[in-house]
Design a protein that fits this description.
The complex is a heterodimer of chains A (279) and B (397). Chain A has 279 residues and is mainly α. Chain A has one domain: MetI-like fold (Orthogonal Bundle). Chain A is flat, with a radius of gyration of 21 Å. Chain B is an alpha/beta fold and 397 residues long. Chain B folds into 2 domains: 189 residues, 3-Layer(aba) Sandwich (Rossmann fold); 114 residues, CBS-domain, CATH 3.10.580. Chain B is built from 18 helices and 16 strands. Chain B has a 6-stranded mixed β-sheet, with helices on both faces. In chain B, strands 2-1-4-5 form a 4-stranded antiparallel β-sheet, with helices on both faces. In chain B, helix 15 links the parallel strand 11 and strand 12. In chain B, helix 15 packs across helix 16. The longest helix of chain B is centred in the middle third of the chain and has 18 residues. Classes of the chains: A mainly alpha (279), B alpha/beta (397). At the A-B interface, helix 9 and helix 10 of A face helix 4, strand 6 and helix 6 of B.
Chain lengths: 279, 397
């Protein structure tokens, strides 16, 4: 191997990143400003509510969605009170804002992309390996260019989370639409539905359950990025975990970890409750 | 002008249909093309016409290309070659917009597995065609209700498809196809997924509806009994080619080749043939002028034991038996009137052999076939059995 020159892949990537950094401000600045405003708005809104009010609202929402009083609503109540009691309220709201922002961006990009993939074979052929790449590349790696382009703070955290969390919703939207039976597609065509009508009236409603599973996974992945994103200054529960690692404090690591778990369970069950079969 | 005119319609599945067409024109067979190019000939040079108000059945086994053929007509599958004319307009040449328009107004389709949208209620499914046309809400509801009533599903409007039985689901499928009042119904194995009894009901109902609707119906099936029952004309398909087109009788009686013959072999002939097919020309005498001697003379000549009596112009009057005539001659009676048995069993020419069988098995004198009062022919037991055994039928009889 010694006489074959090494391919300078790393330095190529470096120069691409530094080129973009100095020449693509027109692209990164508006994205950065938008995400910054978005996440600030959401977190300010969440923290504006007194903890008690927020807890009551959440419990009410779970009762409404699950149509149950026992089970999830009780868990939500106890879980959120515990978080409050442990003193992680503000961090939890920041984390929630981070998750909501990154997963909504991932979903807003991901669902149309999945639809496009389902409709065009070429798009599927191009996008699929990119999704594989996005999912298998260790999540930490995204942090480096994210910091280069967006500095440190919440925004690069969101960017890294979006990249990491988007593949499931794209894949499952694609799958859900492709799974709609041929006869139903033929029926829509035979009665003279346009491509758009077919999508709205037939494909999306029938793919809904699969798409919602994608949404659920995307949110869970965004949540799993919380700790990683805290390494580049995205504040929240992740910061607490990260700090606990640095100081070797098992207790604090556990309590902040538990807060993340509670948040994950509540979010997951809430989305699943929306996703019950009606017919 | 025919309602639907299909000319040289061909579909080749594969990468280079043009090359396949060329090979077909050179006279290569389906198998040769598959071997040489890997392409499958789905439908091969099919031509036929369907008249307005006709039920045209395309019948063939699975893989014969019949389902592909019906999809070539509304272009759910793009034809490789040939044309489909509906009211003189070539659907294979029109642009997408016009195609959507034609599908909305002229062609409706009923599917094998119903093709109902599970997330919509019965009435929402029924109104789908009108909805995509952008009809006003009130009209959609009104027309959907009307269509559901037509197929006997009044009161089921707000159910979901999975709450219905197979037969009811297909009624919804039919109602959906009728709601936007198309000229043409394409029915792709529409009753094949149903139980035999339900299937029979649906066939009867379709025929009833057709009496008043007078739609042009292209009906696909793999069941010859169904084809014979429903079709005004039948096209038999094999390997993408139409083997024979004809009325049910023509196909049954003159199968054009061994393939059709083999098909026809298994059909329950008693359901297909009617009294009209098996009746023979009777020996008759006239009440106004003939007497017992003439009657006996005729019977001796024809070697039969009874002779039918008519009055006026071939109207059935009764029957005279050989014993009756002989006794009358012995007693010196000259009048026929006294010995005519007027209580003759009569049937209409349309009655099926199956029903006819029950009538003839307990009667010694032949059954008369009448239309009004006119004597059209008589049924002798031997002829019925001959047909059921699969022998040739004398069409002139």
């Amino acid at each position: 191997m010694d006489n074959i020159p090494q391919i300078p892949l790393a330095s190529w990537v470096d120069s691409a990143v530094s080129y973009l950094r100095s020449n693509a401000d027109w692209l990164f600045d508006p994205i950065s400003n938008f995400l910054d405003a978005f996440v600030n708005g959401v977190s300010t809104g969440l923290m504006f509510l007194p903890p008690l009010v927020f807890i009551i609202l959440m419990v009410g929402l779970t009762i409404y969605l699950t149509k149950k009083v026992w089970g999830l609503p009780v868990f939500t109540l106890l879980g959120l009170v515990l978080i409050w009691n442990l003193g992680y309220w503000e961090e939890t709201m920041l984390t929630l804002a981070l998750i909501l922002c990154s997963s909504s961006v991932a979903i807003i990009i991901g669902i149309p992309l999945g639809i496009w993939m389902a409709k065009k074979e070429t798009v599927q052929k191009i996008v699929r390996p990119i999704l594989d790449f996005m999912q298998t590349m260790p999540a930490f790696v995204y942090l480096i260019p994210a910091v280069s382009f967006f500095g440190i703070g919440m925004v690069p955290g969101i960017i890294a989370s979006v990249i990491f969390a988007m593949p499931p919703v794209v894949r499952l939207t694609n799958l859900g639409i492709r799974e709609v039976s041929l006869e139903l597609i033929e029926a829509a065509d035979a009665f003279g539905a346009t491509g758009w009508q077919k999508l709205i009236k037939v494909q999306l409603p029938l793919a809904k359950n699969t798409i919602m599973q994608g949404v659920n996974q995307t949110i869970m992945l965004a949540l799993s990025m919380v700790v990683i994103a805290s390494m580049i200054g995205a504040e929240g529960l992740g910061t607490e975990v990260y700090r606990a690692i640095g100081r070797n404090q098992a207790g604090q690591g556990f309590t902040s970890g538990i807060a993340i778990v509670i948040l994950a369970i509540v979010l997951d069950r809430l989305i699943q409750a929306k996703n019950k079969k009606k017919y | 002008m025919s309602k639907i005119e299909v000319k040289e319609l061909t579909k080749i599945f594969g990468k280079n249909p043009k090359k396949g067409i060329k090979l077909l024109k050179e006279g290569k067979s389906k198998d040769e093309i598959l071997k040489k190019t890997g392409m499958t000939v789905g439908v091969n040079n099919v031509s036929f016409e369907v008249e307005d108000g006709e039920i045209f059945v395309i019948m063939g086994l699975s893989g014969s290309g019949k389902s592909t053929l019906v999809r070539l007509i509304n272009r759910l599958i793009e034809p490789s070659y040939g044309s489909v004319l509906v009211d003189g307009e070539d659907l294979s040449k029109i642009d997408k917009k016009r195609l959507i328009e034609t599908r909305r107004k002229k062609l409706s389709m009923v599917f094998q597995n119903f093709g109902l949208l599970p997330h919509r209620t019965v009435i929402e499914n029924t109104g789908f065609g009108l909805e995509v046309q952008g009809s006003p809400k009130e009209e959609i509801e009104q027309e959907s209700k009307k269509a559901l009533e037509l197929v006997g599903l009044k009161g089921y409007e707000d159910q979901y498809p999975n709450q219905l039985s197979g037969g009811m689901k297909q009624r919804v499928g039919l109602a959906r196809a009728l709601a936007n009042d198309p000229d043409i119904l394409l029915m792709d194995e529409s009753f094949s997924a149903l139980d035999p009894l339900i299937r029979k009901d649906m066939q009867d109902e379709l025929l009833d509806l057709q009496q008043s609707m007078k739609k042009t119906i292209l009906f696909i099936t793999h069941d010859l009994d169904e084809a014979l029952k429903i079709g005004d004309r039948i096209a038999l398909m094999k390997d993408g080619v139409i083997v024979q087109i004809g009325t049910p009788e023509e196909i049954m009686m003159n199968p054009s080749n061994a393939y059709v013959e083999k098909f026809v072999e298994d059909v329950d002939r008693s359901k297909v043939f009617t009294a009209g097919h098996v009746m023979i020309k009777p020996e008759t005498i006239r009440i106004e002028k003939d007497g017992p001697r003439v009657a006996l003379q005729r019977m001796k000549q024809a070697e039969i034991s009874c002779v039918f009596v008519t009055e006026h112009h071939n109207e059935l009057y009764g029957v005279v038996t050989a014993e009756g005539a002989a006794a009358a001659i012995k007693n010196g009676q000259k009048d026929l009137e006294a010995i005519v048995e007027k209580n003759v069993k009569t049937v209409s020419p349309e009655i099926s052999l199956k029903d006819l069988f029950e009538i003839i098995h307990d009667t010694s004198i032949p059954v008369a076939v009448t239309e009004g009062k006119l004597l059209k022919g008589i049924i002798v037991r031997g002829a019925v059995l001959a047909v059921l055994a699969g022998n040739e039928v004398n069409l002139d009889g």
